[in-house]
Amino acid sequence: MIDFSLSKKQMVLQQKAREFAINEILPVSRKYDQTGEFPYDVYEKAFKQGLLNITIPSEYGGQGMGILDSCLLVEETAAADPGITTSLFCNSLGQEPIILGGNEEQKEKFLRPFTEKLQFASFATSEPGMGSDVAGISTTARVEEDELIINGRKMWITNGGVSLIISLFCRLEGTTRHKGITAVVVPTKSKGLTLGKPIPKMGHKASNTVMLRLGDVRVPIENVLGEPGKAFPLAMQTFAHTRPTIGAFACGMARGAMEYAIAYAKKRKAFETEIANFQAIQFMIAEMKMHYEAARLLTWQSAWQADQGQDNTVMASCAKAFATDYGMKTASDALQIFGGYGYTTNYLIEKLFRDAKLYQIYEGTSQVQRMIIGRYMLSKYAPVFDRVYS
Ligand SMILES: Cc1cc2nc3c(=O)[nH]c(=O)nc-3n(C[C@H](O)[C@H](O)[C@H](O)COP(=O)(O)OP(=O)(O)OC[C@H]3O[C@@H](n4cnc5c(N)ncnc54)[C@H](O)[C@@H]3O)c2cc1C
To answer: Which of 75, 76, 127, 363 is the catalytic position?
Structure first.
């Protein structure tokens, strides 16, 4: 049976997120884009309204919501501001390895504090020398008695400058590639952990992004998620659970861009008529709608699979690549509809255009998603007409 209807609880969440986006995010969107300040006030309000940390299980004081719920929430907030949404969702990204790979004590210790007051969590695989190739992590860890001693650098860490903890991936000294990858919860107050300045970015300026240096950072061994050296699959499972949400980010941004373009096309005149009357403009808007709807279906399906406990790796990559690539195209076409005014900072469309680009890069680039899908198609995919082609 196929049912695309949302539950009552989901509709309430979607509406709440929509109101929040309109009333609390949109009015301050330009301000935070210009100043690059971290919008604590917005997150404080989001926390109070229950719009942060929604996937923390109820056993640890959370709301126990799913990935699809997360998608519904972020589509609304990203339609108003992708940058503010990146840091809003980053808590779920930082918490996901703990939810998936933590034991009871770790979940209680590291998840519950997020339900009690506004705090931030980060996720760190990327380094200055690598991002796509997660098996190429070079930050090392060695076990000394009951401690893990970590050395290395992490790059591009969202909310790294404001977080309480980081779910950090490193490798046991002396290991190579996939073997040896270790996931550990690192408190940001740890001695030897230093934060770089916020990295200047093209978009998502409200989101905090920093480099981290780890010089003999000592973390209790009980902070290791799962077995030391066996966390490569945990990193991949985390991405499979968070990539649908990036698809939803792109859907929200694209929806926002499309709506700005429609409103502008109805007002702007050229050749003595509204530009909305030109078929060329209508076709661009029609394509935006087609791509938004298709992207959202893929996104929802991949989120639903995760919520059912199925392996959603391939569908998550399909959703992420499709939604973000077409999201970028939608932002570009929407700006085109604004003509020269689209290229000014007078309209928010130029901000969405800058913000859209990051979706094709973080949480695995569009090329990396195609690698995952391609590898699956050439190894595990079972042809429907299996006897015809063998
Ligand atoms: C604003 C921002 C926030 C981020 N937040 C986080 C965070 O919180 N935590 C975190 O860990 N990381 C974060 N990242 C890092 C992000 O995930 C990486 O930038 C991304 O995975 C790409 O890695 P890279 O930049 O090293 O590019 P590279 O891996 O060097 O890739 C460069 C180019 O080569 C392509 N490429 C690489 N390998 C292949 C291949 N095998 N086949 C074809 N093409 C290939 C890529 O697609 C890309 O186009 C963030 C990045 C940014 C910009």
So the answer is: 363
Q: How far apart are CA 294 and CA 290, in angstroms?
A: 6
What digits encode the pLDDT tens for the residues 72-127? 999 999 999 999 999 999 999 999 999 999 999 999 999 999 999 999 999 999 99
pLDDT in tens, 21-77: 999 999 999 999 999 999 999 999 999 999 999 999 999 999 999 999 999 999 999
Question: Can you say how many angstroms the Cα of residue 183 is from the centroid of all Cα atoms in its chain?
Answer: 19
Residue 256: closest CA among 351, 176, 188, 374: 351
Residue nearest to atom 17 of ligand 1 (CA): 362
Q: Which atom of ligand 1 is nearest to the CA of 158?
A: 8
* 147 tagged catalytic: no
3 alpha carbon – ligand 1 mean position (Å): 36
158 CB less than 6 Å from ligand 1? yes
Global model pTM greater than 0.90: yes
Residue 220 bridge partners (DSSP): 147
* Nearest atom in ligand 1 to 132's CA: 29
140: which 2 tokens? 């090392």
Whole-number Å distance, alpha carbon 132 to ligand 1 midpoint, is 5
Q: What is the sign of the dihedral through the CA atoms of 280, 283, 289 and 293?
A: negative
Q: Do the Cβ atoms of 208 and 160 come closer than 8 Å?
A: yes
List all residues 6 or more positions away from 5 whose beta carbon is below 8 Å from its beta carbon: none
Can you tell me which residue has the tokens 């770790």? 106
Q: Which domains does the chain have, with CATH numbers?
A: 8-118 (1.10.540.10), 122-229 (2.40.110.10), 233-389 (1.20.140.10)
The CA distance from 201 to 205, in Å, is 6
Which residue among 134, 138, 358, 361 is best mutated to probe the pocket of ligand 1, counting the most ligand atoms within 8 A of its Cβ?
361
